[in-house]
Amino acid sequence: MADFLKHKLHLVILAALFIIMVTLAMLSQGYFGGADNITHYLISHYAFKYPHLFLYSWGRPLYTMLSAPFAQFGLFGVKLLNILLGLLTAYFAYRVAEILRIKPAFLSIIFVAFTPLYLLMMPTALTEILFSFVLVLSVFLFIRGNYIASAVVISFIPFARTEGFILLPLFFLAFLWAKQYKALPFLATGILFFSLLGSVYYADIFWVFTQFPYPVTYLHPIYNKSGSLWHFLESRNDTLGLPLEILFLAGTIAVIIHLFSGDKVVRHKNNLLFILVLLPFLLYLSFHSILYWKAMGGSMGLERVLAAVMPLAALIALKGYGALEEMVGKSRILRGIFRTVIITIVVITPFIRHVIPHPLSPEEKTIKEAAAWIKTSPYKDRLFFYTDNNVPYYLGVDPYQRAPARCYLFGDPKYLDTIPAGSLLIWDAHFGANESKIPLDSLLENPRQQLVSYFRPETPWITFGGGLYDCYITKTLAAGQSADNLAIRDSLLDILELKNCLDTLYLQPFESPGDFGDPSLLSGKIVHGGMFAFVMDGRMEYSPGLCRSVSELHLSKPDTLIQDKAEKRGIRVVAYVNLPEKSNKNTLLVISFEHKNQPYSYTALNLNEQKFKLNHWCRVSLSVPLPVIKSPGDILKVYIWNPGKQVFYLDDLRVEETTIFPFLITPRPSRSS
Q: Are 147 and 175 in contact (CB under 8 A)?
């Protein structure tokens, strides 16, 4: 048994890792990397039915070809492929370490698998793992002396991920350095193969380049924000992890020192490590850093792209481990302790830095809820248009089917008025507002779109572009019909927020004229609900509102039904306002906690900064977390402060204790006049 473990320990580790990774994949409700997982899965799943998808450049043809059989078993099938590819990558990293005598070689498997980013990426449907497999396999074949095979394999890397083109010149130089001139022509194998294959469909022998999804010099219309040149280095604790980062630096130093070794064999092995492992990693890292810095090629600065070269970093880290272990001394006990400590720290680091198993993101969870609603709604069989590829996935609908079509990806606002009557549009604040370029106000104020349902994360979530994430489902009306979507949304928001309401602390519908003494303070002409609304003007600096002690409101009393959310309680105020005209005055909705007449928690929202639609009833909401109460006699005040004596109308003011946290100001978006 001891002899088996000595010679087959790497296989035992790989088998254990396979069980661990499959378990994590099964326990993960979500998928790291967002909706791109679903887009790749849908392409692969339907590629046999629609063969042109095999050559869809964005989907990466090599990935689609390999993943299509696995995708027939669902998203988990594609995750399983990536797990297998990731573990094969770790295996070939181990073989590279063996050949180059980087000891202990078995640690390379652990270092690869437990690199924080790589561990997250293995149970996904993304392409970085395949890229890493092709790269490490090519390195292994080169180092073993199978030069032509290495050239053939690496020639396919641009079809795993397009940035693989930058590594082909590096391998070209490596073959020149090794004087393996016969291998050089084989670097064109992948390009020739896919060029000939795709020319049948595209009628263009150069389709690999003319259909290139993200040219380097291309300024993407959406993803064009430049970032820091050091962005990927600054994220190293989440991608490489501090333990491997230290070992990587030690390994880099060791490689450079050994490049000048007097021992010819040592020098040769480190030349290989430098040219085929360290340089490709640094080149890839530099390339993506420059892309993001210069806002080229549609770069968003996504850290996940580095997973493609993380196994190379793990090999350099193993070199660093070996150098540090030598410094520990020759004592087997000390080396055993050192090894145990390093393995333990490396293994636990990903679980400290990230949530594993991976949950559904707030966006994915929201879309899933919206899809579940559609399935049980009267609209379940309607033609629908969507902006997030998660929608057809959760609905189980073929997004590529035509004649008849069940759905279409909506990608251009100019077609908003061409959607057939009776169809649904599922708009989300991430892809709908950005990739589909439909501002929310354009959707809600379109006369042919009627809001039928609304969804948002339980905890407010800032999406790409800086706005709050939510999902709207609208029905297209026949010509001549129209709907007040703003009013419909207000009603839906009220229903949604009631789910998180623990107690209504104050409710003022302004329906009792006798409560205000002066009947002229109420309007019977401009009202939101009921018969009257309150008139704010020069006579009234402070609106009616809540002013009661904490002890009276019982805010400090825990609710046994929500013990797990007791620390998440807060105060929310909801009101409806009607602003007749624009103003640059400060008219503030206020929530204040006071102790001995001194506020210690004060939150205000300026109504005139919300871009409300003028002469229209607009819902305004302000929420704050419940502060630490200083004494039962402290006072909670909620009111509108109108120091500029602005004229406007107020109706249906209510104050609630709620469970939502963190609290964000969520005013209604509205088109500026």
A: yes
Rounded CA gap, 185 and 107, in Å?
A: 36
Query: What is the domain partition of the chain in residue ranges?
Result: 2-353, 362-483, 498-658
Asked if 362 contacts 457 with a C-beta cutoff of 8 angstroms, the reply is yes
Q: Which amino acid is at 194?
A: F
Continuous H helices in 416-461: 440-444
Residue 85 belongs to what H/E stretch? helix 75-99
Residues whose CB is less than 8 angstroms from the CB of residue 377 and which lie 6 or more positions away in sequence, other chains included: 452, 453
Asked if residue 617 lies in contact with residue 529, where contact means CB atoms within 8 angstroms, the answer is no
Specify the CATH number of the domain 498-658. Answer: 2.60.120.260
User: How close are the terminal C-alpha atoms of the chain, in Å?
Assistant: 80
Q: How far apart are CA 95 and CA 321, in angstroms?
A: 17
- Buried b / exposed e over 238-265, threshold 16 CB at 10 Å, is ebbbebbbbbbebbbebbeebeeeeeee
Mean pLDDT of the chain: 90
CA distances from 77 to 64, 112, 113 (A): 13, 22, 19
User: Residue 223 has which token pair?
Assistant: 């993803």
Cis check: omega of the bond before 158, within 30 degrees of 0: no
Distance, CA of 646 to CA of 376 (rounded, Å): 47
Query: Taking Cα atoms as reference points, which of 557, 541, 558 lies closest to residue 645?
Result: 541
CA–CA distance, 566 with 563 (Å, rounded to integer): 5
State how far the Cα of 607 lies from the Cα of 668, in Å rounded to an integer. Answer: 11
Strand partners, 428: 471
CA–CA gap between residue 311 and residue 16 (Å, rounded): 19
> Contact at 8 Å (CB) between 83 and 25?
yes
Is residue 64 predicted with pLDDT exceeding 60? Answer: yes
Rg (CA), the chain: 31
246-282 tens-digit pLDDT = 999 999 999 999 999 989 999 999 999 999 999 999 9
Residue 48 in tokens:
């046999």
Phi, then psi, of 589 in degrees rounded to 5: -85, 125
pLDDT digits (tens, 9 = 90+) for 381-400: 999 999 999 999 999 999 99
- Of 361, 457, 357, 369, nearest to 661 by C-alpha is 457
Angle between helices 61-71 and 189-202 (to 10 degrees): 80
Concatenate the DSSP letters of all residues of 645-671 into one string.
---EEEEEEEEEEE---S----PPP--
Q: How is residue 360 written in tokens?
A: 């559904």
User: What distance in Å separates the CA atoms of residue 418 and residue 403, rounded to the nearest whole number?
Assistant: 18
